[in-house]
Amino acid sequence: MLRRWNSARDMLASIATMALLIGAVLVSVFSGATPEGSTQRCAALLDRFVELRLLAVNPKTSPFVVEQKQTEARAEAERSRALEQCERSLTEDSAACADRAHSADELERCFF
Questions:
Q1: How far apart are CA 22 and CA 95, in angstroms?
Q2: Rounded CA gap, 74 and 96, in Å?
Q3: What end-to-end distance do the CA atoms of the chain give, in Å?
Q4: How far apart are CA 9 and CA 31, in angstroms?
Q5: Cα 39–59–42 angle (5° rounding)?
Q6: Long-range contacts made by residues 19-23, C-beta under 8 angstroms, separation at least 24?
Q7: pLDDT tens-digit profile, the chain (112 residues)
Q8: 3-state SS of 42-111?
Q9: What's the DSSP call for residue 1?
Q10: Is there a contact between 45 and 98 (Cβ–Cβ < 8 Å)?
Q11: Tally of CB atoms within 10 A around 61
């Protein structure tokens, strides 16, 4: 029973982190040109955000679980068209800041 609850909690956490990242991109106040390859950049930023958030909660999270949660987050982002919004809103400044981030919180701050 506890295992099911943990799985459901992890799935909801992944979706919530994806929503936070995409929302942060959408409200980005940075100015600058849209980076080249923004489709891949947005997907990579989402993957990185999910990984950083999962590892912050449990540093021993297995690579399999990280990959599974990234896949779930990407599917939800595509379903909700959030990645398309990210592609239109992402700037060079915010993407470069996110690339330098060492934690999910740092990554989020790049978009506020």
A1: 13
A2: 21
A3: 39
A4: 36
A5: 5
A6: 19/82, 20/49, 20/108, 21/45, 21/46, 21/49, 21/107, 21/108, 21/111, 22/46, 22/77, 22/80, 22/82, 22/83, 22/85, 22/86
A7: 545 556 666 666 666 666 666 665 555 444 455 556 678 888 899 999 999 999 999 999 999 999 999 999 999 888 888 888 888 878 888 889 999 999 999 988 887 7
A8: HHHHHHHHHHHHHHHHCCCCCHHHHHHHHHHHHHHHHHCCHHHHHHHHCCHHHHHHHHHCCCHHHHHHCC
A9: -
A10: yes
A11: 16
Which three-class secondary structure state does DSSP give residue 41? helix
Q: Which amino acid is at 44?
A: A
Count of positions (residues) in the chain:
112
To which residue do tokens 């470069």 refer? 96
Residue indicated by tokens 């909700």? 80
